[in-house]
Here is the input.
Amino acid sequence: MARRSRAREVALQALFQEDLNPQNSLDRLGAFLASRLRDEELRDFAKQIVLGVKRNQDELDALLAAKAENWSLGRMAATDRNILRIGAFEIRFADTPDRVAVDEAVELAKRFGAAQSSQFVNGILDKLIER
Here is the structure.
């Protein structure tokens, strides 16, 4: 697994945890990342994703809701919802090339989502890429 892919995986775990247990918030993010990523550069990358998603969550959720026809974010599986947020954050706010952001999100969906998650994630994120 590529190094940045591993950092995205850990960022997904942190966002998933925060999504289901918001009372824990992100108070322990540093310790969580340190326990899973040894490399400081990767911890910084994962932290940038998590904090970027949280800081821009309202805008990301609005973008995703507009592209996810007949789906509300609340109806989506928590895993898919957070993978989409990561992908949308990287497309909209990070310096990650759009296709790389989509491919990385699809790989996360294959690994952590249900059987159809990768197609679902690909379809929605593909609509976010400006042509």
User: Anything to note?
Assistant: The chain is about 75% helix and 0% strand. Residues 3-128 form a domain with the N-utilizing Substance Protein B Homolog; Chain A fold (CATH 1.10.940.10). The two ends are 30 Å apart (CA to CA).
